Structures are given as C-alpha cells and as structure tokens.
Amino acid sequence: MMPARVHLTADRLHRSGVTLASRAAAVKEQLRGSGVVAVLRASTAEHFIPAARVLTDAGVHALEITLTADGALDALSAIRQEFGGHVVVGAGTVLTHAQAIDCIRHGAEFLVSPVVNEGVIRTGHASSIPVYPGALTPTEFETADRLGADLVKLFPANAMGPSYLKDLHGPMPHLDIMPTGGISLDSIATWLAAGAVTVGLGGPLMGDALNGGDLDALAYRAQKAVAAVRETRAGDQ
C-alpha cells in the first residue's frame, strides 16, 4: 500500500533545489536537537503510532521505524503524515537497494543500516536522503566515511562503551557518530559528553510499549531521556 501523501522523487528533488548536503545538514540538526532517536522495533508495527504520539509529546523528535516489523512501511507513512514538520522520521535496518527504495517512497527522511552497504548509501543519496550505516571497527568507520555516510552509527554501542567513541574521535575527529544498541537511559549524558551527535534508544526506552504495554511508563522514560539531553547540553554551554 502506497502512502496517501506523494513524496518527492529524485528528479523532483533536483528540480526543487533540495540537495543532499542541505537535507543532510537539516536532518542532522534535528537529530542533534532531539539528542535521542527512538528506535521502534517489534514483530509488528501495530502499536507504533500510539507510541510515537507519546514519544513526541515527551519531546523526542526523532524516530527510527525498523523494517523488521510487519507493517513498518505503512506505519512510517502514517507517522510522517501525522508528525511531519516537527518530527524527523527515518527507516532502520535497511539492508538492500530494494528496501532503500521502498523506504524512500514511503517518506523516510533518513536511512539507517546496521552495516556499511554501498548500495544503500548510493540509493539514498540518489534521492537526496541521508544514510547512516552501522560500523564498529576503525576500518569500517573509515569505509563508511569514504563512501559518503552522512553520519555513522556505532553499533552495537553497549559492547564498546563511551570511551571507545572518544578513542575513535582521536584519529577521526571529523566523524559524526550515533551510538546505538543497549544504551541505558542513565548513560545518555555520558555518551553525549563523549561526543555523540545523538543516541539511538531501543528497548531501554521503549520497554513493552510496542507490544501493547504501558504507555504511561513509556512517557516517563521518554521524559527522563529528554531531561538527560537537556541537562547535558546546558552544561556544555
């Protein structure tokens, strides 16, 4: 099922003057402003929209809809239509050229992958959509950067810790990095202080909300995450 809203194709993007550089910069600024990217992952996307409402009400203004959920693309379109303008919505677990195309057609504003896949990067960039591949080793980070990654996802972040991000920035200070994977709410400030542009939060933030669980508990966790970002950023000024 295609989304009701018609999103710009690559040709129309070029004609309208929207460039990859300008869009990538704008999306990155939104991610930085949110400080948290909520990763919505479940077996089905049935509860994604009510969870998204809770997250955005709490001040989380960046959402990643993962393709591992049944109905993810329709949920992506619906969330874009409801929250477009003040929330940036991307697609996660994008592993192939075909998946990247589908995500772009359904309105994804950025693409996230757990690996460095040149085809996904090229496909996103052809439509002026920023791409955030996942990397772990210095070689993978360098490869992602060389292929034009607009931001690199450190994954799995919990296997390495914030000090690893600092170590990466030693020889590669120009890299914009988003740690994702097992990050706790209590460690958000530490990751941001280590140099993360934003942090991706899955299970520790979402809890059971994506399986029809407690939305009030989700609101509390989201508010706690937003407060951690606000306090860390205030301390940096």
From TrEMBL:
The keyword Ribonucleoprotein belongs to this UniProt entry's keyword annotation: no
Record SUPFAM superfamilies: Aldolase
Transmembrane parts of this sequence: none
Keywords recorded for this protein, A-Z: Carbohydrate metabolism, Lyase
InterPro entries attached to this UniProt entry: Aldlse_KDPG_KHG, Aldolase_TIM, KDPG/KHG_AS_2
Pathway(s): Carbohydrate acid metabolism
Pfam families in the record: Aldolase
Family classification: Belongs to the KHG/KDPG aldolase family.
Subunit-level organization: Homotrimer.
UniProt-listed NCBIfam families: eda
Protein known as: Bifunctional 4-hydroxy-2-oxoglutarate aldolase/2-dehydro-3-deoxy-phosphogluconate aldolase
